[in-house]
## 1
Amino acid sequence: MLSFKHISIKSRLDDVSGSAHAGQFVHVMGTNGSGKSSLLHTLAGILELEQGIVSLNGQNLQHYSLAQLATLRCLQEQQQYSHFALSVAEVLHFFSGQHGLPDELESALELNQFLHRPLNQLSGGEARRVHIARALLQIWPAIKSGKALILLDEPNQGLDFKHQHLLFSLLARICQNNNLVIVNHHDLNLCQHYANQIWLMQNGQIVESLASLDSIENEALAKIFGCGIRCAISHTGHKIFQTYLE
C-alpha cells in the first residue's frame, strides 16, 4: 500500500527506505530530531524530496492531485493552533461537511460535551482530541471502506491515560478494517501494547524495523534513546518498560 525508497531531505532524512501495508499499525519511535515528523510529512506528500520516491497503492505520490490525496490520506500535525473563536462543531463541519460525530469517534474522543465551546478555549488535551477527529473526519469515507492512510504526529501528546488508550484502541480497530495507520510518539509501553510494526529512527534513518519490542535488547533501545531502559514482564508475557538516566 505504501513504500518509500532512498528518500532524503537535507538535515532531516538520510536515504530512508521502507514499506507498510493495509491493516498495519506502525509506530515510529526515536529521540527529538531523529526524523520522525519529517518522515510523516514526507509520506503525506507535504515535504519536497531531494531524492527518492514515495508510492501509494503503486503510484508515485507526486502524481496524485491534492484533491485526490485529501480523500485518501490525512495528517494530524504535532503543533496546531486556533486563533479564531470557532466552536468545535464549526471546525469539524468545516473540514468534513458532517454534522456530529460518528459513534466510533465519539466513544474514543468524547467531544460531544464541548462541541459548542470555542476551540481556542479548550485545554491542550481537549484541543488535541478535536484535531485528531478533524483529521479522521476528513477521510472518513475512505476509513469506512478500508482504503485510508492515516498519519498522526504525536497524537497522544497532552492526553490523559484514559484517552491515550481510547485513542490507540480506536486506531487499532481502524487498522483491522484494512486501513494503514502510522503514528509517532515517545511511549514505549503504548508501542509495545498496540503496534504490529515498529520503526526505530536515529539521525534521520530507520535503524530498526520490528514487529515487536520483544525482539530487541534493552541495551540497543538505550543506545537509540540515549537513556537507561529496564523492563519487567507483564502477566501476558510482554515487556513493561521504565526509562531512567544513568
## 2
Amino acid sequence: MSADFTLIQLRYFAAVARTENMSEAAGELRISQSALSASISALERQVGVQLFVRRPQRGLTLSAAGRQFAQELHAFLEHADMLYDSARGLAASLAGELTVGVFAPLAPFRAPIILKAFEAEHPNVRVSFIEGDQEYVRNALLDGRCELALMYDIGLGSGFTTTTVEHIAAHVLVHEDHPLAQAPRREVSLAEFEAEPMILLDLPHTREYYMRVFDQAGVRPNIRHRAAGYETVRSFVAGGHGYSILNQRLSHDMTYVGRPVVRLPLVDDVPGIDVMLVRPDGVVPTRRAIAFEDVCRRIYAGAPKSDRAARSEGAE
C-alpha cells in the first residue's frame, strides 16, 4: 500500500523531532503552532503510530517508534534535497505529481480550464484536485494534503502566502419572471429584496461573508432556504423560490432545472471577494506548483472582469 503522507509533513515532523518543542519548531518553520500540530497529528494517523508522547506541562518527547522514524527520515530528507537540486538544474519538462485544493464553487468552471492549459504545457505532470468548502481546503493546505489551492480570501487566517488573481463583486440572482429582471435592466439595492425569500449559499465562512454583505447594506435578509451547493442555489432561484446573492459568474444563465436565472449588479457599496492562489507559509514551492500558479495567473488575466471593475475602468 502506498504512503499517504507528504514531504511537507515529513519536514514538519523533522523540525519537531529535533527541537521536541512545538512552539520553537513552528517559529523556525514560520507557520502557526496550531497548523504544525494539525500536520503532526495527521502524519501520526496516516502512519498508524504515535510518534510523540505528549505530557502536560512538560511538552513533547519522541516515542520509541518516533525516534526510529526520525533516524531513518534524516537520510530520506537528504536524498530528497539532492533530487530537488538535481531537478532544478534540468532543462527538461516538469514531471511528477501535484495536488491542488480548490474551493467547490470555483471547481466546475475553473478547474477544467486550468487543467487543460496546464497539461498542454506540462504533459508529464499529473495533477489531482481536492475539492471542498473553504475550511476543508484550508485544512488540506495546513496538514499537507495539497501543496497549493485556488480559493476565496474569506476565513483564511494567518500562516499562508497568497496571490490575488481576481476580485469579484457580489450580485443578486433572480428568476426570469421577477419584476426587476424585466427590461430595462438596472443596478439594484438589497433593500428592494428585504421582504422577499432569500436562498443562502450555506458553507463555512461563505455564510458569514454574505451576512456581512447584508449588514453593511443595512438589510435583514428573509432567509427561506439554505443550500450547500452553488448550482442548487441557482436552481432554487430559477424555480422561483426566492432570490440569492452570489459572486462568481458563469458564462451562461441556464440552470440544472432547465430555466435561466438573471444576474443583477448591486448598487450597494458592499465587500467583494478576492480569488487567491494560496500556499502555506515557510514551504518552498516545487517547480510544478510555481508552473501551476503561472498558468492560473495567465487564465485569470484574460477572464471577464466583474461588473464593478469593468465600470470603474470605463470611467477612467
## 3
Amino acid sequence: MTTTGGPARAVPAPASGTPAVVLDRSSPVPLYHQLAQQLEAAIEQGVLVPGNLLGNEIDLCVRLGLSRPTVRQAVQALVDKGLVVRRRGVGTQVVHSRVRRPLKLSSLYDDLEAAGQDPATRVIRNEAVPATAEVAAALGVAEGGEVAVLERLRLTHGLPVAVLCNYLPVDLLDLDTGRLESTGLYRMMRAAGITLHSARQTVGARPATREEAARLDEAEGAALLTVRRTAYDDTGRPVEYGTHLYRASRYSFDFHLLVGA
C-alpha cells in the first residue's frame, strides 16, 4: 500500500470505529504520527470513547490505505500513552483519555466535568480524627485537636484516576457523604459561602503501594503523582489540607510559563 506522495485527503469514517482521518502524504510529518495525533485528539475530544473498537491492524490498513508497519507504529504510540489496548480476537480498543489539568486552584471534579470526563466519586472515609502534627500545622489547629478527614476515590468514565485525602476544620461545613459523591468539595465550599482565594501546593512522585495500586487499578510500584495542597479563603484562613495521589499513566498537569525579567 502506498504511504508517500500525493496531496492530503480525508479518509471517511466507517459506521463504527475510527473517525474521519486526514492524511497529508506530501507532509514531512510521518504518516504514523499524523494518524496517532488524530486518533489521540478524537479520544481526548470524546469522539472515540472508552469501549470503542478501532479494529485490528489489517482492518485499519485497508480502511486508511496505509502499510501495516505505519498503522502498527501509530497504534503503539497510543498504547504507550495508555489510551488504547490490543485485545486478542477483538482488535484495538479505546480505554480512556488522559486527564490534562491546568495548574490552578480549582476542583478536580469541576475540571473533569468541564472537560467532558464524566467524573464520579466514591467516598472511602468521612469522619472526625485527631490532627497529626503535619495536619495541625497546615490548618493552624492544635495537635491532637479534632479535624474532619475525607478520603475519596475519583473516577472518570468509570475508571479510577485519583485518591483524594482532605483534612478540614471540623466545623467548616457539613460534609454530607451523599453530596460528596455527586459533586466536588470546592463546589460545596462555595455553596456554603466560603470563598477560596489561594493555595500552596507541592507536586511530586513515588511508586504505588499494594493498597494504592489496588484502588487505582495499577501495578504495585507504578508511578503515582503526589500533590500536597493547603488552601486558604479570602480572609487568609486555612480551610483545607489535601494529600492526593494521581495515576501518572492517566493524569498530567498543564503549565503556562512566563519569561522572567
